[in-house]
Amino acid sequence: MARFCTVLCIAFLSFSLFVSGVFSASFTFTNNCGYTVWPGLLSGAGTSPLETTGFALNQGESRTIMAPQSWSGRFWGRTLCTTDPTTGKFTCGTGDCGSGTMECSGSGATPPATLAEFTLDGSGGMDFYDVSLVDGYNLPLLVVPQGGSGTCSATGCLVDLNSACPSSLKVILDSSTEGSESVACKSACEAFDTPEYCCSGEYGNPNTCKPSSYSQFFKNACPRAYSYAYDDATSTFTCTDASYTITFCPSTTSEKSSGGGYPEAATVPLVNNTMVFSGADQVSSASHALPRVSQHGSLLTILAFSVLSLLRLL
Predict the structure, then answer these.
(1) Which top-rank group of organisms is this from (predicted)?
(2) How far apart are CA 110 and CA 235, in angstroms?
(3) What is the Cα–Cα distance from 109 to 4, expressed in whole angstroms?
(4) pLDDT digits (tens, 9 = 90+) for 33-45
(5) What angle do CA 152, 233, 138 make, to 5 degrees?
(6) Strand partners of residue 78
(7) 124/129 Cα distance (integer angstroms)
(8) Using an 8 Å Cβ cutoff, are 130 and 174 in contact?
(9) Separation between Cα atoms, residue 252 and residue 231, nearest integer Å
(10) Digit-coded pLDDT (tens) for 25-68
């Protein structure tokens, strides 16, 4: 009996270490919007897929997704999604991934969409992350590291920009109950498709591609988010051994219910340097974050020892 208990304890320890080694970080998605959001998840080339590529997140709900070591990819929120009762096809008014189902299955967001981008366990073992408006904007989003070490700054875009969006960038959805209501805000590249706005051709380097009046609109509203392709200096952040919360509508700017209405434009100021990130340092050092394992060597050693012990006991 004693031998059996010992074997069981060693097996449990091995399993626990294996699980902690396989998963590098957790991403907790929270929907503070007054309507349903359908997160989309896309893994980068050559990285392991996550447990899902898309799901529904009702108002007030949260869901945690585990990511493996060295994972990279992006997340975004889809809005105004419906399933055709005749064909069964699933489509979204903004952020649609074109898969025809709730799962995006390897497809990215159709612009415009607010993006949260991550590379885990990158150079120097650090995570690199950002919130990008390079492909435009569709809803407020905030990323906050949990329990990591290093700078670990929060980043994102608190403000609902849809009503304030320049008329030449506005996306008006035909099915909008308000008729002329803007549901998303295009990037200048998406709207005009010119090399100077898309940082392509002769403008394909940071020396020739400069901020435009349109990218400055996004930057003034969301100072820590990418506003154009070469906005790295103020928009890329790092943290080590952290997990992350991704919050849609981090401040509740909508009074509309989830019954099909789109969020109203925010009444908060456009420049939000302190408002979005106040208290971020305290939040990022929260003690309840899941532990991270960044090296495999010690894990393999302990597993090997456990296997040998099991063989001897058996």
Answers:
(1) Eukaryota
(2) 22
(3) 52
(4) 999 999 999 999 9
(5) 75
(6) 38
(7) 14
(8) no
(9) 28
(10) 999 999 999 999 999 999 999 899 999 999 999 999 999 999 99
